[in-house]
């Protein structure tokens, strides 16, 4: 029997704290549970919605009847160390905080730029999360995932379709486990991570509920720059707005709603399109 909860407040399952109620959320503990849920999805016609930390996810208001699947109980991991490298194999629900603790403990290089992202392994890999010029696929070696028919597939990095803030897993399958490879470093990795976290705190509105980067950066230019020049830095629709610290960060100032957020995004897309002739593409995932 797969664990589940009914009538779940979705605002508690995303970092911007906006959303309605899920009729049911499942909590698989094994790959067998995931396979079973994917078969249920196929049979019922309900879309499967993986849930991690929810740092780039926004839910609409009202009752949502998708097949919500939380990875919060998929937290097993192991680490294999050699003279020069370490390989961490982590289930989808393993948090970046856990990876940071391993990286600091063994002074491993390659993850430090990603260390402040509020994410779980599965969600980060699905969107190819990145920061400070690095992305998770710089260190991914292998992904174990289940397709829509319930087949477990093991794919090497070279076999996966991925790019800037994109992977094939946004369209198909469910990530179960990921293998990443890191180098043993001669640098002081804990100190470098400390500096990265300090910089994030200065530049990003981490004191408010936020969905993080809202739009993808168009080729050769920052989405934050475009939003700022369009006069949207600090712009609000009700209790939802673009941060005064970082124009590409959407924040909830108190009792933000999905309708307010939707209007904010539509306004941003319209103004940037008019001023610069650029069509912004959302980085956040909206579940309606």
Automatic annotation (TrEMBL):
Pfam families reported for this sequence: FAD_binding_4, MurB_C
Top EC class of this enzyme: oxidoreductase
Catalytic activity: UDP-N-acetyl-alpha-D-muramate + NADP(+) = UDP-N-acetyl-3-O-(1-carboxyvinyl)-alpha-D-glucosamine + NADPH + H(+)
EC number: 1.3.1.98
All residue ranges annotated as the FAD-binding PCMH-type domain in the record: 18-185
Active site: 165, 213, 283
Keyword list, A-Z: Cell cycle, Cell division, Cell shape, Cell wall biogenesis/degradation, Cytoplasm, FAD, Flavoprotein, NADP, Oxidoreductase, Peptidoglycan synthesis
GO biological process: cell division; cell wall organization; peptidoglycan biosynthetic process; regulation of cell shape
Single GO MF descriptor: FAD binding
InterPro entries registered for this protein in UniProt: FAD-bd_PCMH (IPR016166), FAD-bd_PCMH-like_sf (IPR036318), FAD-bd_PCMH_sub1 (IPR016167), FAD-bd_PCMH_sub2 (IPR016169), MurB (IPR003170), MurB_C (IPR011601), MurB_C_sf (IPR036635), Oxid_FAD_bind_N (IPR006094)
Cofactor(s) this protein cannot do without: FAD
Known pathway: Cell wall biogenesis; peptidoglycan biosynthesis
Keyword Secreted applies: no
PROSITE patterns documented for this protein: FAD_PCMH
Entry's localization field: Cytoplasm
Top-level division of the source organism's lineage: Bacteria
GO cellular component: a single term: cytosol
Functional note: Cell wall formation.
Family classification: Belongs to the MurB family.
Protein name as catalogued: UDP-N-acetylenolpyruvoylglucosamine reductase
Organism encoding this protein: Persephonella marina (strain DSM 14350 / EX-H1)
């Amino acid at each position: 029997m797969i664990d589940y909860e009914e009538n779940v407040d979705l605002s508690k399952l995303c970092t911007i704290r906006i959303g309605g109620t899920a009729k049911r959320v499942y909590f698989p503990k094994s790959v067998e549970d995931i396979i079973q849920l994917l078969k249920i999805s196929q049979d019922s016609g309900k879309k499967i919605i993986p849930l991690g930390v929810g740092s780039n996810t926004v839910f609409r208001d009202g009752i949502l009847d998708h097949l919500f699947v939380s990875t919060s109980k998929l937290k097993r991991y192991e680490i294999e160390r050699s003279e020069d490298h370490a390989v961490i194999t982590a289930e989808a629900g393993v948090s970046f905080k856990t990876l940071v603790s391993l990286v600091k403990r063994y002074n491993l290089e390659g993850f430090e730029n990603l260390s402040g992202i509020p994410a779980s392994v599965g969600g980060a890999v699905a969107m190819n999360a990145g920061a400070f010029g690095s992305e998770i696929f710089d260190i991914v070696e292998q992904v174990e995932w289940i397709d829509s028919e319930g087949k477990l597939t093991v794919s090497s990095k070279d076999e996966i379709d991925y790019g800037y803030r994109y992977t094939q897993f946004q369209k198909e399958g469910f990530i179960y486990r990921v293998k990443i490879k890191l180098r043993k470093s001669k640098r002081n990795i804990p100190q470098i991570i400390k500096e990265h976290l300090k910089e994030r705190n200065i530049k990003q509105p981490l004191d408010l509920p936020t969905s993080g980067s809202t739009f993808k950066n168009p080729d050769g230019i920052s989405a934050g720059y475009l939003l700022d020049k369009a006069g949207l830095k600090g712009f609000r629709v009700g209790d939802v707005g673009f941060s005064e610290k970082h124009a590409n960060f959407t924040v909830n100032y108190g009792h933000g709603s999905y309708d307010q957020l939707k209007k904010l995004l539509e306004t941003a897309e319209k103004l940037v399109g008019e001023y610069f002739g650029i069509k912004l593409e959302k980085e956040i995932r909206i579940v309606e």
